[in-house]
Write a structure and sequence with these properties.
By secondary structure, this protein is of the alpha+beta class. The protein contains 15 helices and 21 strands. A hairpin with a 5-residue loop joins strand 10 (about 260) and strand 11 (about 270). It is globular, with a radius of gyration of 25 Å. The mean pLDDT is about 95. Bound molecules: manganese (II) ion (2 copies).
């Protein structure tokens, strides 16, 4: 090889991730990015629980012709309003397997306890039990909303969503003032923030004597918990429920307010619940905009990922297998569902940690994800010596990398933090249990699991393109 040519080829040998902002620098692309992100922003502002998310997804799918009859080629199954599978029949026979994108619709939060209401120091409070991995102090002294359901003993279900409209009241956990925190600031974070102190303020007004007439007997109201009783009166008046009904409720306490653009240039979207509704929304949009050609395509959204994926609506249940059985009977009855599952190829669609500008030392930079460089492949998750990982095979990773390269979609690859500095898991291993090929692919976030997570607008758009390319093979 002549020297000059050799030098030229040398320049192309190194790998550098490509910026999604540079790839989508054209004015038309920029417009598309913000058109797409604005729709995502509205979805995220309205859907803050797994139930609200699954209801939204089901509504969008039904509008597009999906239903419970698989013979239509547009199948959907909703398990208890918390988990959903949808599939679109392709032109290739089902025995070639599904192209499946799986994500989770639950996010870390505070759940009200089954007997939440207490009264102390002139305040009515609701006791909570946190759900998923939170840093407790991030939930203090900020406006919170209550979303959920209350089930009466006759089975009737009352929905509640309070704290989102400008005229609604909000709720909050009052933090300790710095003046009295001298002992606390010397404790470890674990010691300083007690789970039993995550009590949200839900009432303060002492009822007037007149109002008290409506409460049982005059004696009772004066001595015991008059504020809590007044709160129960309000709940009874507006929702027709009593304290016992709260025992059979699922009341989720989440940050109040809408998703907001962040930065002078609005390049980021800040919100509660990007993890993992960013992947739910982009996967749903990818399925809805997918073509009829090629492999059959599916999406699977689970609940319970943030607490280990157990439970009937979590990824460790057999629901996915039952759904694949249903479509196999309808679309390719001479084969078994297990053959379809074995031949399937999946993306475990979940977020990863972006390189934190202020804690860069916790990442190994060459193998860290950076905001704005497209969705991120994680060959494996887990912790320490890759424990708990479904390590994707090189062959499948190569196939997926080639797919995105040929579609000119920016992507990157990362591990979650330095070796031995922590770790995390996704639903990849639950997909792998069926024998299918699977790899993690999703956007990176800053401040993951916080009440205000940050995502790059370019990454949100690029993730949708990547999932679309995957489903349209
Ligand atoms: Mn997640
Ligand atoms: Mn998570």
């Amino acid at each position: 090889m002549p020297l000059a040519a050799h030098k030229e080829s040398m320049q192309d040998l190194t790998y550098t991730p490509k910026s999604a902002w540079k790839r989508f620098a054209a004015e038309a692309d920029q417009k598309e990015i913000f058109k797409f992100v604005e729709r995502y922003r509205e979805f995220l502002s309205a859907c803050k629980t797994e139930r609200e998310t699954i209801a939204y997804v089901e509504r969008r799918l039904r509008e597009a012709g999906y239903g419970e009859d698989p013979s239509s080629g547009f199948y959907l199954a909703n398990l208890r309003g918390k988990s959903l599978f949808a599939a679109r029949r392709g032109t290739l026979p089902l025995r070639e397997g599904l192209s499946l994108i799986a994500a989770h619709a639950d996010s870390p939060r505070l759940d009200c306890k089954q007997r939440p209401l207490i009264e102390q120091a002139g305040l009515a409070q609701a006791k909570t039990h946190y759900y998923g991995g939170i840093r407790k102090y991030q939930w203090l002294s900020r406006p919170l909303a209550i979303h959920g359901v209350i089930v009466r003993d006759n089975g009737e279900c009352v929905e509640i969503c309070l704290g989102e409209k400008p005229e609604d009241p909000v709720f909050c956990v009052a933090d300790l003032l710095p003046h009295l925190a001298q002992k606390q600031v010397e404790q470890t974070v674990r010691e300083a923030f007690d789970g039993e102190k995550l009590n949200i303020v839900v009432g303060h007004k002492l009822p007037s004597d007149e109002e008290c007439e409506t409460l049982e007997t005059k004696e009772e109201k004066k001595e015991e918990n008059p504020i809590k009783k007044a709160v129960l009166e309000l709940l009874h008046e507006h929702l027709d429920i009593c304290e016992e009904d709260l025992i059979t409720a699922e009341l989720e306490v989440v940050p109040a307010g809408s998703a907001r653009y962040v930065g002078f240039d609005r390049g980021l979207l800040g919100a509660y619940g990007h993890d993992d509704r960013i992947c739910v929304f982009t996967a749903l949009e990818a399925l809805l905009s997918s073509e009829h050609l090629g492999r059959s395509k599916a999406i699977m959204f689970w609940d319970k990922e943030e607490i280990g994926s157990d439970g009937a609506t979590g990824a460790s249940s057999r629901f996915l297998g039952y759904c694949v059985e249903t479509i196999t009977k309808a679309w390719d009855p001479t084969i078994s569902a297990s053959q379809v599952l074995l031949q399937s190829q999946a993306l475990s669609a979940d977020v990863t940690a972006a390189l934190d500008p202020d804690y860069q030392d916790l990442h190994e930079k060459q193998n860290a994800a950076q905001l704005g460089y497209g969705p991120c492949f994680s060959k494996f998750t887990g912790s320490r010596g890759k424990y708990g990982a479904s390590d994707a095979d090189a062959e499948y990773f190569g196939l997926m990398r080639g797919l995105l390269n040929r579609a000119n979609i920016p992507w990157q690859v990362a591990e979650l933090g330095k070796v031995d500095s922590g770790g995390g898991g996704t639903v990849a291993l639950f997909l792998a249990q069926w024998g299918m090929q699977v790899i993690d692919l999703g956007p990176a976030l800053l401040a993951m699991h916080s009440p205000f997570e940050l995502a790059s607008c370019a990454d949100i758009y690029a993730t949708w393109l990547a999932y679309s390319a995957f489903l349209n093979r």
